[in-house]
Structure formats: structure tokens, C-alpha cells
Amino acid sequence: MEIRTRSYFLLLILCLLSAIAASAADQRIIVGLHDNTPLIFTDTDSRVKGIAVDILTHIARKEGWDIQYRPGSYAQCTRRLETGAIDLLPGMAMSAQLEDKFTFGKETIVANWGQLYISSDATFSDILDFHEKDVAVVEADIYFQFFETILDKFEIRPRFIMVDSYGKVLSMVHEKTVSAGIVPRLYGAYYEKRFRVRQSPISFRPTELRFAVAKGRNASIVNSLDGHLKQLKENPNSIFYQSLDLWTQGVRKVTLPLWLRPLWVLGIITGVMGLIVVGNIILRKQVKLRTEALKTTIAEKEKIESELAVAREIQLQLLPGIFPAVPNRKEFDIYASLEPAREVGGDFYDFFFIDRNSLCIVIGDVSGKGVPAALFMAMTKTMIKAAARLLVEPEYILADVNREIARNNPSLTFVTVFLGVLDLNSGGLTYTCAGHNPQLFIGQRGNTVLLGDAQCPAIGLDDAFQYRQATAHLRHKDGLLLFTDGVTEAQNDKNRLFTQESLMNTVALTADVTPKERVMAILSQIREFTGSRPLDDDMTLLALTYFSPNRIGDTHKTIVLMNDIREMSRIIDAITHIADSVSCPPVVVHDVTLAMEEIFSNIVFYGFGDDLDHHITLHLVIEGDALILTLQDEGIPFNPLNVQIGPRDKPLEERDKGGMGITLAKNLMDQMEYRRERGKNILRMEKRYR
């Protein structure tokens, strides 16, 4: 009887274990399905596809999950996730507001951002071109809302055409019923060939799309996803990279297994040799006395610090450090700064002439730290300069340097580079970006655009890669800001990054300043942000402002006049000349000339109180969109802004004729200011011509 009871008991335990195993093997996970092509979507055959679907299918096979998709809008999916109606939602953009309701995976599925698309044959020069132009958008799109806020700050107001889908946006761009359209980067990459549209250099608001679960629920699911996703990212042959290639480029890459790659074999050999060396060092240290080891450690530390100090000094001496760099060239102004971190790094910058009118500007960042990175930097900088003298085009320059470095690079060190060639006659910029973060184009008003085209791999990784280049156009007083990731990744005491958005906001406040003032303003803002925390990486900045040769010398003029009314002809010639240089409308020239006639005649006839000869100085200058005229004379103190022309009911012939002329001048100009300084009357007049 006792044996039979035990048998029943064992049988019951086995049944329970089988039930638990079956339950675990068939764990059902309900996933929210919303249309977010190509991350997750339903095709015409009602099949669920996309990057997230490929990843989930792979992981579910490993974990024994039963994945079921429940379709709905994005808003419906987020509500269902919050209430527990679904277990998992892929592709949620991480934000501080959502972290109170949801738990996000630590691993990013993909990065996304807003992208402005234009037709395949459209030309692009500046974001200002879209003022009062039609731009197609989806009304609820977060990227459109962010873009609208940015444009509003710069008083750029396109006509936004609201449509109900991203597909309609790209269709309207292709049909040229609008000038441009805004869609997410991933969506555009998937459909741009189908709609025959192309990216503009304008991209904004990067977001990280991750897996999300409800707060307090299904933490084990998101932890499992993080573990698998991290492993997939470490393997270049994994389904993660295959899916990215398929859904963003339309191809599946065929790669050799990792174990067949010679670099891996070399890496294993190097690792084994490194372990042998480390083991030998450890054994030798165990033999030494503790006091001797301490002395050796101190001596080595002092030696390393000395070598780092010397290497840091050499690094800085290799870079251009005298400003103004080329004082005899008026077509540009340039300034650069490199602030080394605690260790010697591999940041560098350079600028030099390829020929008389072609200026090459370079910024780069070598992987790693210390003396090896500094030496690699010096080698790369020298090779770039030598190649540029012969090849001129950025894509050929970097291809040549990459080929030489990649073929002789056993340490697998790589370097990211942004290289541009600026035509000082036309303002045309040709550039290539080799693994470097997109640099900034700065408009005259401080508005910024990312130079995001021509993104290529870093130098030193693949000797057969063919680099490509893109173009931009700088107008008079437009500029560039080149920087390394040490700027945007500077951290404060709370481990928060300075970010690219903060950099662009800072640049927006530096309109109409010199490159040196712009760099100093950015460095000051970063120091205020980081506080007492030392730099973790080199921080390098290079700023350039372009001055069109057609405008140099015509934006300001000074003439000295006699107190003779016949000098008015010289004044008219000067006003006409400087107004023509900026295409000033005739009506503005007429108003300025008439106002000057009234003011100048008043000074000539009433300003000195004698019949002697006196000098009157006139300064004319273009500032932004305004013509500024400043008159200086040493006559009787007189403030024309206080002039009154008498009561309206007084007969016209009895009113003050000079007062009426000055009042007319004040009405014709947009602004007038007077001051008495060092015995001189100084009258400043401003007239906007745009």
C-alpha cells in the first residue's frame, strides 16, 4: 500500500513538471502592431513584417515564445500596453515623460529622426529657401511638430500641407505639388526609391526606438530581449544586421562566417600573446618585494605622465595655432580650438590651400587614447595634406588615405574624418564625411543645418571602399562649424550629455559674430554645463565664415564732406554705390537719399553758426538687412529728435521749415539715434531694405 502511494505521488509530480514545462515552452506574448514602416507593418497579403518582427521571430524561436500580434493605431497600442491588454510594444521612442508609465529595453532597436525630402531633380541651398513654400506633413507627426517649432524661432514660415499618411507626403513631393515633405528617416529610406525622391541635408530630432512593456509588468520579457539583442549586435552576420540591410537598403549582404575572417584569427593570436605577456609580468611582480614594486610603480607613473605631457605638447604644435591664419585673404575668417582631455587623444584639425582659390578644411578623431592615438593622428593628418595636393576632390583624397592606412593597420585603429574643399570664388563646398558625425552649416542669421549627406565608413577599416561626396553652397556671411564628438558628448556631474541639440541652440545665439567669438561662446556654454567635471575626451572646434568676393569692400564706406550743399552729389553717389552691392530696392534708395538731403542741408545751413569751412564725416555700412548711415560734425550741440514743427492749426508758411524737413527724415527712416560725444554731434540713421 505504501509503495503504491509513493508511485502515485511521483506520478503527480511528473505531471506537474510536464505541465509547467509545456506552459513555459508555449508562453504566449501579445505584441502591439501599429503601422511604422519598415520597423513593423502589415503588407498587402496581411502578413506582419519589418525589422522588429524579424528580431522578435528569431528571439521567440530561442525562448520558446508564441508571438501573437494585435493591430491598432499607435495611440491604441500605447493605451493597451498601459492597461495590460498587450504585453509588448516595439518601436516606442524613449522619453522622460513615458518612463513613468513604461519600462524600456536598454538596447536600441534602431535610431530614427525626422528627414526633409525633396524631388530627385530639385536643388537645395539653404533652409531659408522654404520660406512661404509648400511643405507636406502628417499633422500628428512628432517630427513635424518639432520642425515647426525650430522654424518659428528663425521666423521661417512655410505653408504646411496636412495629409493623412507618409506615403501621401512622398507622393506629393514626387509629383512636385509641394516643394518638400517631412517623414521619419526609416520610412524615407524604405520608400525613397519607389517614389523617386531624395533626402535634403536637413535632419532633426534623433530618437531611439526600443522595446517597451508596462511599468511593473513583463520585466523578464524585456530583459530577455535586451540580452539577445546585445548578442545580435555583436555579430555582424546576425539577423539584426541582415534585417536592417533588407528593410533600409533592399538587399541581403552575404558575409563570411566570423571564424573565417583573418582579422579574427590575428586578434585571437594577439590576445593569446597578450595573455602570455601579462602572465609573465604578474609572475615577475610576485617575485619582487613589495617595496620594490611600489617604487617601480611610482617611477612608471611619473614616466608615463611625463611622456603624456610631451605627447600632448607635440599634438598641439602639429596643429595650426596662429590666428588670424591668413590675414591677407578677405574671402574667409577661420578659428579653431582643441582642448585635450586628461589623456592624450587623437583629435586633430587642419586647413590649407590646395590652390589659390580652393581651401581644404579637415577635422578628425582617432580611435583610442594615449601616445599611439597621437602618433596615428599625426600620420593621418600628414597623409591627408599630401593627398589633397594631388587629388583635390574630397572623395578621392579620403579614398587614397584610407587605402594606404587600411593595408598597413595591424592594430585595427581607425579614424573618423570630415573633409571639405571650399571654392572661395563661388562659395561652393564639396565634402565627404568618413564615419564622422554630421557637421553644421550656419546661415547668416545663425540658423543651422546638418551636413548629413556623403556619410561613409571611417578610414582604416576597408581598403576597397569607394568614398562619395556631396555639395553645399555658402552665401555671403554663411559659415561652417566642424566639431568632434567630445563636444556633443561632454558630460556633467549627473552623467548627462551636452548633445547635438544643445550645440545647435548655442550656435543659434551667435549670429553675426566672428568665428573666434562663436567658438569661445560654445566653449563657455560647455564649461558652464560640465561644471567641475574634467573632460573625458578631447574637445575640438573649427569655425569658418565665408565672405563673397563680390561683396567684399562694398559693405561699408566712409567719406569726409565740407559744409557745402554741393557735397550732396557725393553723398548720393555713395548711397547708390553701397545700395547696389546688396540689390537694395529703388524705393529704399529714394527714401534714404531724401532723408539725407534734409539732414545734411540742416547741418550745412544751421549747424556751425559761422561762414568758416568745417568737416562733416559720413559712415555708410550694411549690417544684416539694414543700411546704417552715421553723420558726425563738430557744430553747435543739436538733437534733431527733439525738433517740433509747431501746432497743426498754425499756417504752413509760419511753421519751422527745418523742423518739417527733419520730421520728414524721421518718418522716412526706420530708426534714428542721437548722442553728443567728445564735442561732436553724432546722428545714426537706419533703414531696412528687406
Judged by helices, strands and strand pairing, the structural class is alpha+beta
In total, how many beta strands? 27
Write down the overall geometry: globular
Query: How many helical elements?
Result: 18
User: What is the end-to-end distance?
Assistant: 106 Å
Q: What fold name goes in the CATH topology slot of the largest domain?
A: Phosphatase 2c, domain 1
CATH superfamily of the largest domain: PPM-type phosphatase domain
Q: What's the number of domains?
A: 5
CATH class of the largest domain: Alpha Beta
Low-confidence blocks of residues: 17-25, 251-260, 648-657
- Biggest sheet features: 7 strands, mixed
Helix content: 25-40%
Radius of gyration, in Å, reads 34 Å
What features would you describe in this structure?
With 690 residues, the protein is α+β, with helices and mostly antiparallel strands. Strands 5, 6, 7, 8, 9, 10 and 11 form a 7-stranded mixed sheet that branches. Strands 13, 14, 15, 16, 19 and 20 form a 6-stranded mixed sheet that branches. α10 runs parallel beside α11 (370-391) and α11 crosses α12 (394-406). The longest helix has 28 residues, at 290-317. The protein is globular, with a radius of gyration of 34 Å. It starts with a helix and ends with a strand.
